[in-house]
Amino acid sequence: MVKKYVFGEPFETDAVVAEIAGEQFGGNLVCGEIAADKEFCFRYTMKDADVIYGLGEANRGINKRGYIYVSNCSDDPDHSEDKVSLYGAHNFIIISGAQQVGLFFDYPSEITFDIGYTRQDLLEVRCKRADLYVYVITGESAYDVAKQFRKIIGKSYIPPKYAFGFGQSRWGYKTEKDIETVVEGYRGNQIPLDMVYMDIDYMQDFKDFTINPERFPNFPDFVKKMQQEQIHLIPIIDAGVKMEKGYDIYEEGVEKGYFCKREDGSDFAAAVWPGWTHFPDVLNPKAREWFGSKYQILMDQGIDGFWNDMNEPAIFYSKEGVEGVNQAVLVYAEELTKAQEAKGADNKEHSDCGNNTASEESEDILNKANALPAEVRSRLEKLQNSPEDYKRFYHNVNGKMVRHDLVHNLYGFNMTRAAGEAFEKIAPNKRILLFSRSSYIGMHRYGGIWTGDNKSWWSHILLNLKMMPSLNMCGFLYTGADLGGFGVHTTRDLVLRWLALGVFTPLMRNHAALGTREQECYQFEKIEDFRHVIRVRYRLIPYLYSEFMKAAENDDLYFKPLGFVYPLDKMAVQTEDQLMLGNEIMIAPVYVQNAGGRYVYLPEEMKFIKFMPDGSIYEEVLPQGHHYIEVALNEVPMFIRKGKCVPIAEAAQSVAEIDETTIQMLGYEGAEYQMFAE
Ligand code: MIG
């Protein structure tokens, strides 16, 4: 059952699509209590056995207990354990214990989930303004509650089938040649591949929807040539539109008033990759339609997939911010001059008697002046994504000016919605690949997400795994992380182990940051190991695609925590490093360096499967309980649930080349599998 409570004057976020009559809150809740005065606060005392699920793309565990999380879409590339905000804002939690209660706080600005951080047994959700909708969902189980929530937020986005293939990306591919090298590296080594991603360097001066003509002299031909090799090129689109005379999108946006504005009505300027930019006002339906229509420029050149970046929106600095620092620099410069003058004076004063020591006072000034670069640097750093800047611009929402910080968490959602809504018009019968960095619940209807700038750390394999079911609860099915790790140098074993998890995530993409060690699969020794792992993905695609489609169609989860399937099994509920996938399998990747295997917990008897490097499949029935499984670096493990089976095809070089007539069933004898019928 779903109840919708209205507090104050909520902003219509369009997260929920079901028509539910809102009620004024009468003071009674199925669990916990609400104080809504000027500020809003939900409070609930957690019982020992309560598990708190949800929050989508958030740090830490599947069970969110024991920390604090703040929905405040942030461009922060350091996903260390202490971080409370990442790129998304997914304000849905499930309290699962004696009662099963889902809570969705539909509030587009900063909101805090203190889940046993301040006080170990206290769950507190608070935000500054008591203007929001709170949806309260009760059900039989956490799984049931999640599915009810998914029903009210509308169907999840479905990508084209090729997007279930493997993709290679790297910040730093600049030219046709760079991309051809990648394709040769894969095709030449018979490693399957369906997509190459184009990061910001394909653009002319980082201008959205442009192509650098020197690097890509005939782009449509190049796209075609790639398509003949079954490779889809996926360009990045950034939120900021470069301010440059003669750039049509900039000029049109200014003329039509489609950029975010300052209080005085002038267009707000922020520096991002292209230098000074304006942000399209994607919360204004007209501007959204306009910005979305621009994707056609690239679609007309053969492009059928995009990734949207920098849409928190990320800001390096604003005009106002720089002025602030300029002021500081001036003050310091003045101090520096004074100090030098003082030193000069001292020198003069003392030179007669041969004493060169500066007076204490001037020494003090000198020390201050010497500290200038560091201090200015830190001030400059503070300009990045500064909360002050988010108060400096406005959206035009149905004629009303709404200050950005009050709706901050909706920007990435609406940028992606701009594209998604446009695709429905431009190519109504075609699925276009689309995923975004920043998001709010509701965006799951228009695109997927990737989890942003992780690092080549072992702990981030596990973080990737834990985020997946939480994202599914919030509607995001087409998701995945930068495999091999984005930031810092990776290692061969890390890439292999991470790929063995990526084999199962709908979005399977290797991506790395500029300046880091090259991590394409052909860069390492014993390429055959990489070939094998990626081939396993392609063998599984008929199954993974079928389960994805079923989940999308039925508002179901593709990835589930074990506790959703075995809620009465305490051990299963506590398992944070294994996942259920679809209806048939459980995954348990290895995420520890130098480990030759790992411990797993089987809530029931299962068939342990290993895809062996020689192409054979190892099968062993294991009873319910704890086991240590050996898994070599070049093997891919998974488990098939008792009495079930999954379809496995022969591997292929691309999704289009998978031969469905080669499908065989793997698993328990006599079991049947129902393939999703298109
Ligand atoms: O400020 O486009 O998360 O995937 O490679 C960095 C360059 C901008 C951040 C994205 C990352 C991408 C990078 N971008």
Averaged pLDDT: 95
Strand count, sense and closure of the main sheet?
A: 9 strands, parallel
Helix content estimate? 25-40%
Molecular shape? globular
Low-confidence segments = 348-358
Cα-to-Cα separation, first versus last residue: 31 Å
- Work out the radius of gyration: 27 Å
Computed structural class: alpha/beta
What small molecules does the structure contain?
Answer: ligand MIG
Number of helices: 15
Strand tally: 38
What does this structure look like?
The protein is α/β, with parallel strands linked by helices and 678 residues long. 28% of the residues lie in helices and 24% in strands. The strands form nine sheets. It has a nine-stranded parallel β-sheet. The chain has a six-stranded mixed β-sheet with strand order 2-1-12-9-8-5. A six-stranded antiparallel β-sheet has the order 29-30-31-36-33-34. α7 (319-351) packs antiparallel against α9. Residues 348-358 have low confidence and may be disordered.
